[in-house]
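yo

u said u wanted the structure for the complex thing, so here. seqs first:
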Amino acid sequence: MKSGFLLKIAVLLLAMTCVTSMSAAQLNSGAQPIALNATLAESLTLNLSANAVNFTLAAGNANNPGSANITATTTWVLQPGRTAVAVYAYFANSAAALTDGAPGDNIPSANFFIADNGGASTALTNTVAFGGANAGLRLANVAITNANRSSSRTDAMAFNINLASLPQLPAATYTGTLNIQAQATP
Amino acid sequence: MSYRSQIVRITAVCVLMAAAGSVPSRAQVLNSAARPISLQAVLNDSITVNLSSNAVNFNLVRGSANNPGDRSITATTIWTLTPLIGFVRTYAYFSSSAAALTDGAGNNIPSADFQISDNGGAFQPLNTTVPFGGANAGRRLFNQFIFINNRIGTHTDVMTFNINLAPFPNLPANNYTGILNIQAQAF
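structre next:
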């Protein structure tokens, strides 16, 4: 009698276990999607190693070098589709890159020269993406591919003011602002 | 058109619109900030005098008022000045009025007996006090007021020379030497 009772309990427990395991294997919830959106914004920055250059001019002299070179470091992180990064130097006005403030006492941008990374000294006489007409110079143009969408470059600039064509420039202190700026296209 | 195909078409349109919405940011240029470099260029005042020659000889005649030099000398004064400069002047002078020329033995020709004719003008003795040299040992050759229109300029002084020995009838025969200076000043 006692052994029969124990047998019944064992059979009942076995049946309950089977029912539990059968229902766990077949019951799934629905998949709940989570939309993910990660944006790496484009960036294009340009930093300068210094922001001032002085010149001691000699009247009528072609060679009046700046007191220091300045290095422009352009850094970019670009989306696919960009094809080029260009770096420009420019003045706001080609006729008066530097001036003493008196009427007509100006040094034009055509008399201001930059040698980029040891290259030839070149006048700022082109119309570029920024600044005044005929007041700029493209320092660099980097083609962008998958290999350099995130990259940087440096432009070490040496400066000169050529006064050979301005023999009548009066003695004075001439000041001006040269801008360096980069642009990614398209 | 079935309900299923309508759903597919609407979905396709939505996908295209979403894709189109991401394009404009690529089509526009991306500019960095402009970084300014301050430039300062100083063209200092300058004034120089150049001479066409630097030696003159005289054959003296005792007691004679006319002992011309063997050549003329042209002094060219060149200046580049700020607007604050008021005058440019060029001077001729000796360091001592008593002994413009000397034989080194105590026999001297004073500056008052040394004469310059500037640009064809009358001969003038060097007997005034100028900013350079000894007292009463100089003469101003040139005086120019500087304004906006002539802050940069040049001027030439063609100088002819004479030594007047009329006051020195007893000057000993000897070789007399001296230094005449030509100098300009802007102020």
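Helices of chain B lie at 3-21, 24-27. DSSP finds two helices and twelve strands in chain B.
cya
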